[in-house]
Amino acid sequence: MTSGTTASTAPLAPTKALHTGSGDPLLLLHGFMLSPHCWEQVAQRMAGQCEVFAPALTGHWGGPDFNGWYLDVNALADRVENQLDELGWRTCHIAGNSLGGWVGFELARRGRARTLTAIASAGGWQTPSVLQIRVGAKFLSLVPVIEIGKHLPDAVVFSPPVRQAVALLLSKNAAAAPRRGIEAAITAALHCKAMLPMLAGGLRGPGLADLADVKTPVRLLMCEQDRIIPTRLYQKRFLQELPDTADRILVHDVGHVPMLEAPDRIATLIAEHVYASRTRLRAV
């Protein structure tokens, strides 16, 4: 499917969670201002070997609401942990993209992760730091665009130029990102109540704790053409601090949300990590 020519296969509606498949429990966590829709293709591929659960994060499109002016990773992890308890999952395999990777590290710290696949993970900065301020400013610059978009007709919001611009922001190869996924990303951004509270909470709260203490088997996937949090700047701390046993993989020719443009590769990389934990083998 291509972002420019393929029509959406179904009307877009908010999704509280994707829940499909059977087998080992696998939690999929989406990024900031996105929704579970970004995991649809990967979830479909993983459902044959895992019970897949991909919830909408608090304050995001389809997710639970919240009170107050601030929202942080701990609050997001609290809600996800409650959902795991409701499912009866004491532990599970976790794959998280961007903000979802950060939440995944927090859940791993709490002892809820059997394995963690962190994809273009956020949180790899000190607090306070120039990197933290830069990424916050980048998202803050989107606020007027989002506010204007809320008042525009769908014909403009989902027009080919807008879809192309969003696809290029999230992907390296815009033509490989499905139209449904791009339209879901646009809709999720327009309905993200957590945008300003998360930015405020990110400035107030700490970054990731010492990564050297992570006991969970970690597979770090770094996206070569990441335009949102470039790998060479924002993955440096992960490379330096994660235990030597952690996998460090540079995924070539993909952008910040590689599940959209390369679902086969991402599903395979997650599945390898899950399989290695089952057999107690180290993945290469």
Please provide a written account of the structure.
The protein has about 280 residues and is of the alpha/beta class. It has a single domain (about 15-280), classed as Rossmann fold. It contains 13 helices and seven strands. It has helices at about 40-45, 75-85, 100-110, 130-140, 145-150, 155, 160-170, 180-190, 195-205, 230-235, 235-240, 260, 265-280; strands at about 15-20, 25-30, 50-55, 90-95, 115-120, 220-225, 245-250. A seven-stranded mixed β-sheet has the order 1-3-2-4-5-6-7, sandwiched between helices.
Write a brief structural summary.
With 284 residues, the chain is of the alpha/beta class. The chain has helices at 40-46, 73-87, 99-109, 130-140, 143-149, 154-157, 160-170, 179-190, 195-204, 231-234, 236-241, 258-261, 263-279; strands spanning 17-21, 24-29, 50-55, 92-97, 113-119, 218-223, 247-251.
Features:
284 residues; alpha/beta; Rossmann fold; 7-stranded mixed β-sheet; 14% strand; disordered N terminus; hydrolase activity; hydrolase
Topology:
Blueprint: E1 17-21, E2 24-29, H1 40-46, E3 50-55, H2 73-87, E4 92-97, H3 99-109, E5 113-119, H4 130-140, H5 143-149, H6 154-157, H7 160-170, H8 179-190, H9 195-204, E6 218-223, H10 231-234, H11 236-241, E7 247-251, H12 258-261, H13 263-279
Helix pairs in contact: 1-13, 2-3, 4-9
